[in-house]
Amino acid sequence: MILKLMKQAVPIAVVETTKADPRIKLIAAKIKKENYKPEALIEILHTAQNAYGYLPIPVLSYITKSLKLPPARVFAAVTFYHFFSLKSKGEHTCLVCTGTACYVKGANAILKELEKEFGIKAGQVTADEKLGIQVARCVGACGLAPVVVVDDEVEAKVSADHIVQEIRAKILEHEPT
Ligand code: FES
Predict the structure, then answer these.
(1) CATH code of the domain occupying 92-173
(2) Which atom of ligand 1 lies nearest, measured to the CA of 99?
(3) What is the DSSP letter of 147?
(4) 141 CA to middle of ligand 1, Å?
(5) pTM across the whole model
(6) Domain locations along the chain
């Protein structure tokens, strides 16, 4: 099923639908830097995993096609290495960028506040599986630091309070009434 999805997605569509998401540009830059070499697959997957917290199928498809690799080879690499994950952790995800630019602008304090507020550490999911908190090394939007990505929405120049409120609202929004 995953292989089928990877074959279906078209790279340009990924780029267009994620125009506002700097992470795809980060991956495109990495692929270019590696000269589109298939041998750089693992490194490129690491870049993607670090930026997204997991490997979304359209992104895998984009990498597959950019490197002109058979989807089965990419899928085999992703499933072989324990580090890679095909699924985001939790119903909602909060990815705190702790790269240099974000660190300088207080990313660690934001992360600590979120961990305290939701009672989990980065890399963990709440007991009800509603929220997973993860960290990224850089999501490619350093000029907007500090950056937090909530459910694939890149939030710029954030404060911990704002993110906490947003996550609470998202969780409530999806609660059965
Ligand atoms: S360091 Fe956070 S976006 Fe680059």
Answers:
(1) 3.40.30.10
(2) 1
(3) -
(4) 5
(5) 0.76
(6) 2-80, 92-173
